Amino acid sequence: MATITAVEAFDIRFPTSRELDGSDAMNPDPDYSAAYVVLRTDGAEHGHGFAFTIGRGNDVCVAAINAHAPLVTGLDVAEVVGDLGGFARRLTHDSQLRWLGPEKGASHMAAAAIINAAFDLAGKVAGKPVWKLLADMTPDQIADLVDWRYLSDALTREEAVELLRAAEPGRAEREKRLMERGYPAYTTTPGWLGYDDEKLVRLAREAVAEGFTQIKLKVGADLGEDVRRMGLAREAVGPGVRIAVDANQRWDVPQAERWMAALAPYDPYWIEEPTSPDDVLGHAAIRRAVAPVKVATGEHVQNRVIFKQMLQAGSLDILQLDACRVGGVTENVAILLLAAKYGVPVCPHAGGVGLCEVVRHLSMFDYVAVSGTVEDRVIEYVDHLHQHFLDPVVIEGGHYVTPTAPGMSAEIRAETLTAYAYPEGSVWQ
Fold it and tell me: Which part of the chain is the Mandelate racemase/muconate lactonizing enzyme C-terminal domain (predicted)?
């Protein structure tokens, strides 16, 4: 029987601020980074995962991963992959580490990195990509992944199992369509705030030519500039392509309402992160004010409880879970089930290193086994840093090609781990 012999953590950073890739009104100079973890075993397979950050503070997440290592080292691999929900709760319920959150911040992101690495390991042991590993589970097995504490006023385990059973009859046909067509994507690549007009227009036109039916622009720094850039983008893509806008938490509630009124003539599809990610009632007020423009948020929502409140309060039209911010796959399964209960589409966040690679597994599982639809559902795509992964994302005709390699597609190439290690790697010297 194989055991987990070590938890190895790496501080990996990419200097994306040099070209302003990833730039927005709140984060003008991000260096996409991964607090990367490997679950080493004495068997044939190892698990890989990471927490995504944008530079400074990545070392804090690495330290938090190392703090969780004693809870993991020495565990039997078969027991871990046989009870992934229990493994996740072992990390998130540790009373002393939990005090740092609870269930939020760097400690929770570190737990997510390890939990996702365990799912990567489980997929490799089973010989399945993680979306397929999840989609092949019974409704009861899926429900067993979830930490049901704090959710029963919105969704009970029994209701979730019933929802999953109702989706079972169409699983095989949806899986067949997923393998044939992939999953719809939209692209943020044209819209980074640091890009000049020529680059914005060129990339927007290229996106449409490549089959994308939605692009996204960053907004929130200067109203006049945002109106002008929105006009350029709308002219470039025409009336039939959706343009989402993203303020990255820049505004107060009244400011969001005024700003969106000015952008309304250019038909924005959604406004993303208009205000603080913790402001449940503020998002609800903005949603009422800017309709029919949709409100989307979630990449910085800390846990399933905040998502539960947002759904209960009618705070969002689009739920944007993040594969690496909440407690990894297990908590995201809970969030997918909550979204299905409330009938809210899930369009995940993927603007960062490796996020496209891992989050596609969650959306594809959702389609096959939970929501049963891709209507008004798209996964974000950014054209950065995929070459550093062993199982990189492939886009065809504006769709994510369905991954078939075992695991969660999180493994970074060995040469990248050496070159981009911070601060000693050659890229940083």
Answer: 197-293
